[in-house]
What does this fold into?
Amino acid sequence: MNLEERLRDALTDDHLALPPWPDATVRVRAGIRRRRRRTATVAASVVAVAAIVSTAPVLLRGGGTAPPGGQPGATPTLSAVPWLDEPVDPAAPTSTPSGARAESARPCTAADLSRTAKGEPANAAGGHVQNVVRLTNVSSSTCSLVGFVDLIATDVGTGTRATLRTGYGSTFFDGGPGKRYPATIAPGEDARIDIVTGNGCYGGLGEPHRYRDVALVVAGRQYPVPGLTLQTWCPLQVGAWYTLVDEPTAAPSPRFATLSVDVVAPASVARGATLDYVVTLVNSGPVAVPLDPCPVYQQELWRNTGTYRLNCSPGEIPAGGSVRFAMRLAVASGTPLGPTPLRWDMGATADFTVPGSTTVTVTG
Amino acid sequence: MRLWDAPASFDEYVRDRHADLLRFAHVLSGDRYLAEDLVQDALERAGMHWRRIRRHDDPEGYLRRIIVNQHVNGVRRRRRERLVASPPEQPTPVGERRDDAVWQLLATLPRKQRAVVVLRYYEDLSEAQIADLLGCSVGTVKSNGSRAMAKLRAALAPSPSAVDGGTR
It folds into this structure.
């Protein structure tokens, strides 16, 4: 047998086949969701930085509190906070329920979190055990825990204490409608992370690895998890931070109660064109309205609707003042000609609470 | 359908094809865990753009291209699919590989040379097809292939002492 034949024979050996994944679609879809979230976060960060840079001179000149108004045909977006192209899926499990938690907030620091974590086995299925570990927000404001953690533990067999090498990302218990990523936690609330052990590897043969004195490493600080022990035949899997959708939350805050909306758009727009317009949020109340957590809004022209995150770079709507936000909407080519309502509505959640509207004449 | 969802046909594709992709990635990389990394990564990338990818004639080719290029470029999601410090002993698979010597020697080749060998003798691709897939010239494919084969031939050739012993 010559070398070429030998190579073909060796490479097509059936022993090189790997066992298929029993949860192939689940693990791949979990990975796709993770990638989407990462992409959205990075894009939002870039746009936010750009927005801050570009709006800083305007805000310093007081342009951010210019009164609403505009003239037909004029470009109404001057001196406004730039539009943020960050669509939000209101039906996604990661969207925020009415009056409850926001999707993201400032990153949690070590000082925001309880000094120890609570951990316990929660579920077992398919040869996997889900150990849920919780950290509590002990600060006075909402923050987000994003991504993964490192684990430090003592190997029961050898007595060695070291950082465990773990698989990050999709775990057997990932996904599902009950979890919300990232973990945005109000004061007193818990963020959760799954540490998943398994007995389905190597046929459950041999001795498992056992670990005690487990600690999470978050933002450079160790958080012991008293009482948690891990026993696994498989590589440990660590999921991403999450919160529970149906976890009790603080009472809804009527933080937008003092806001009203003015929508100013060009008098006319052509089918298929991009409509640039300006929304002014006016705060008639005596205290500033914070834009953290950052709200989302919905815009609608005929059947063309979209839900987006507001560009929250101004940080707040000042007491007695207003902030102008540039908006953008693609006018569908099938939009009927003539006067058409342009509706805009904002809320902290998918329940929209701060409505505004104007009329735009669609031309051919 | 949620904004982020790939269509149901993607699920079917994953269910039907991931085992073959795992095998291909295993042959390519020589490491089952790296193979799983590569396939997971490729499927995630494909799933994000599935509507566009499935319009092409050969989504499988697209997937394999991702796997090969990620491997050749040495990309690995280092923080995602790592192993525990010292995993339990893996039982010897039932039966042995037919030609373990060749398998071991393949592991000594640089990634690009190994990729050329695998694409040539496992995938039965021509040099032009390999060049297209790797994004290099046919000449580069030829040189990598000939270097790899020379190394394999030299390693598999009987040693002089064995030859001498046999002739005595």
User: Anything to note?
Assistant: The radius of gyration of chain A is 26 Å. Helices of chain A lie at 3-11, 24-60. Chain A touches chain B through 53 residues (CB under 8 Å).
